[in-house]
UniProtKB/TrEMBL annotation:
Function: Probable FAD-dependent oxidoreductase; involved in the cellular oxidative stress response. Required for normal sarcomere structure and muscle fiber integrity.
Record keywords: FAD, Flavoprotein, Oxidoreductase
Spans annotated as Disordered: 209-230
Residue ranges of every copy of the NADH-rubredoxin oxidoreductase C-terminal domain listed in the record: 411-476
Pfam family, one: Pyr_redox_2
UniProt name for this protein: Pyridine nucleotide-disulfide oxidoreductase domain-containing protein 1
Cofactor: FAD
InterPro entries linked to this entry: FAD-bd_OxRdtase (IPR050260), FAD/NAD-bd_sf (IPR036188), FAD/NAD-binding_dom (IPR023753), FAD/NAD-linked_Rdtase_dimer_sf (IPR016156), Rubredoxin_C (IPR041575)
Residue ranges the record marks as coiled coil: none
Boundaries of every FAD/NAD(P)-binding domain copy: 14-200, 265-381
Domain of life from the UniProt record: Eukaryota
Provenance organism: Xenopus laevis (African clawed frog)
Family membership noted in the UniProt record: Belongs to the class-I pyridine nucleotide-disulfide oxidoreductase family. PYROXD1 subfamily.
Length: 498
């Protein structure tokens, strides 16, 4: 009898793990679609992240604000959601149950894992190496920055790009393993275009910021938690990323190298190594007087050694799968993400995943690729909820349109940046050609063409071309007769294809 009551209670019971964008969007969507079903949102972080003011910039491009909220706000808006603040430490998939750190057990009918990812550090356990993921890690970073004279940043993705531009008042050595900066997003030409901004003085910060700021104070009792949600677009706006020097940018880029080893001050002093000065500074820091200036030294694979105050490791993320792996035969991808199919379902029954924790393992549309980004976390969370609901109701569901075309709008080095489709010729081999238009300091436009059709675009600056190019990509219009005229600044391309 007790068993059947339990089985009854289980019917339609949804559990979502993770209070980031993916988890919150998933829980909201489930709660709205099934108002009489219980939705548990279990999260390690004290605050959840909700999407507000969703704006459809074009068919595929979207922008939104992010609000950090207490769980009670979500419960107020959706009375069938219960937010539980406690990390999940165990999953018993056979029993359809998750267990939290406090020992509370939650049975589920359908479960969605949205526990995000954490920074992949170049070394773990070194007090001079930090990763940036959540508000706690940013607070630590800010604290160290106050007295810093030199910071070494390792990595070439979005976070490194933003940091290098935003950091002021200290020397920055930027070590990247590629030939050009930002190669996750840019080709060498675009990198060259952006580098000018690093040499220029930064414009004054805008007086207001349209996005919600992230709190940098942990709520009482949660200091030092290592499982917060990832920050996201504009995370640095409103945060003071200034060291004590009275200048803005001072960046030295070391290309095609990685970190060979990290030496503490004492280790460096014992070895007969020469540390190089920052470009433009005369002194060579050998293991004599000035060498002891730096608390930590980094030897790069290009043979150069630099001292610095601390190192930021911005070398990607590792999906947070550990608590869920033990005892469960998940199909996990090489990047550590749990594989999901075109219904966001994992290899285990009734378990779905969305956001940074998962690896999209369906055959994607020719114009889409997964990137662990804020927009995709929202889209996946929303679509996972739809798929969970469809399965519960035993209804068919089609893949959402947002997975047709990769589309992302962001800001780098104070420029608007729009990425569409195969903007970097991803997976196209030599089977493509590029059309370029660049006006220094103003705009950089790159089109990726294949067989006379547009398959990708990178737009830097206020080009106003996104909607037209998005349509041309989506419609796969034959453009072979236009050739380079597509980017002729004297032709109003918008009118042309209206
Ligand atoms: P997260 O936001 O990481 O949320 C994971 C949630 O799971 C958290 O609430 C966490 O507390 C919880 N959790 C973890 N483990 C457990 C557990 N065991 N039990 C219960 N709960 C758990 N993207 C962009 O699109 N544009 C940008 O400009 C951009 N900039 C970024 C800058 C920084 C510094 C960082 C770190 C990321 C940036 N991103 C950006 C990436 C973007 O933030 C992520 O892709 C997105 O937030 C992922 O959302 P998520 O919900 O999957 O994961």
């Amino acid at each position: 009898m007790a068993e059947s009551r339990e089985a009854e209670a289980m019917k339609g019971r949804f559990v979502v793990v993770g209070g980031g964008i993916a988890g919150v969007t998933c829980a909201e969507q489930l709660a709205a679609q099934f108002p009489s079903h219980k939705v548990y949102l279990i999260t390690a972080s004290p605050l959840i992240k909700a999407v507000t003011n969703l704006r459809q910039v074009s068919r595929a491009l979207e922008e939104f604000d992010v609000e950090e909220q207490g769980g009670s706000e979500l419960e107020r808006l959706y009375p069938n959601i219960s937010v539980v603040q406690s990390p999940v430490t165990e999953l018993r998939s056979q029993e359809q149950k998750v267990i939290t750190e406090e020992g509370a057990e939650f049975l589920y009918n359908k479960l969605c894992l949205c526990a995000g990812a954490r920074p992949k550090l170049i070394v773990g356990g070194n007090p001079y190496v930090l990763g940036i993921r959540d508000t706690d890690s940013v607070r630590d970073f800010q604290r160290r920055l106050t007295d810093a004279r030199r910071v070494l940043i390792v990595g070439n993705g979005g976070i490194a790009l933003e940091l290098v531009y935003e950091l002021e008042g200290c020397q920055v050595i930027w070590a990247i393993k590629d030939k050009a900066i930002g190669n996750t997003f840019f080709d060498a030409g675009a990198a060259e275009f952006l580098i000018d901004q690093l040499k220029a003085e930064k414009p004054l910060a805008p007086p207001t910021c349209k996005r919600t700021k992230y709190t940098t104070e942990s709520p009482p009792g949660r200091e030092g938690s290592s499982m917060g949600s990832a920050l996201g677009p504009d995370w640095h706006e409103g945060l003071d990323l200034k060291a004590k020097g009275a200048y803005s940018h001072r960046v030295q880029i070391e290309t095609q190298c990685e970190v060979e080893r990290i030496l503490l001050q004492e280790e460096f002093a014992q070895l007969n190594i020469t540390a190089l000065p920052f470009q433009g500074e005369e002194t060579v820091e050998s293991d004599s007087a000035s060498s002891s200036d730096w608390p930590v030294y980094v030897q790069l694979t290009n043979g150069k050694t630099y001292g610095c105050d601390f190192i930021v490791s911005a070398t990607g993320v590792v999906p947070n799968m550990e608590p869920f792996i033990r005892g469960n035969q998940f199909d996990v991808a090489e990047d550590g993400g749990v594989r999901v199919n075109d219904h966001m379902a994992t290899s285990l029954p009734n378990i779905y995943a969305a956001g940074d924790i998962c690896t999209a393992s369906w055959t994607p549309s020719a114009l889409w690729q997964q990137m662990r980004l804020w927009t995709q976390a929202r889209q996946m969370g929303w679509y996972a909820a739809k798929c969970m609901g469809a399965e519960l109701l035993q209804q068919p569901i089609e893949m959402d349109f947002c997975f047709e075309l990769f589309a992302h709008v962001t800001k780098f080095f104070n420029y608007k940046v729009i990425l569409l489709g195969k903007y970097n010729g991803q997976g196209l081999g030599r089977e493509h050609e590029l059309l370029l238009r660049c006006t220094r300091g103003h705009e950089y436009v790159k089109l990726v063409m294949q067989g006379g059709r547009m398959v990708g675009a990178l737009l830097i600056g206020d080009t106003d071309l996104e909607e037209t190019f998005e349509n041309l990509i989506l419609n796969q219009t034959d453009l072979s007769s236009y050739g380079e005229r597509l980017l002729d600044p004297n032709i109003d391309i918008e009118d042309y294809f209206d």
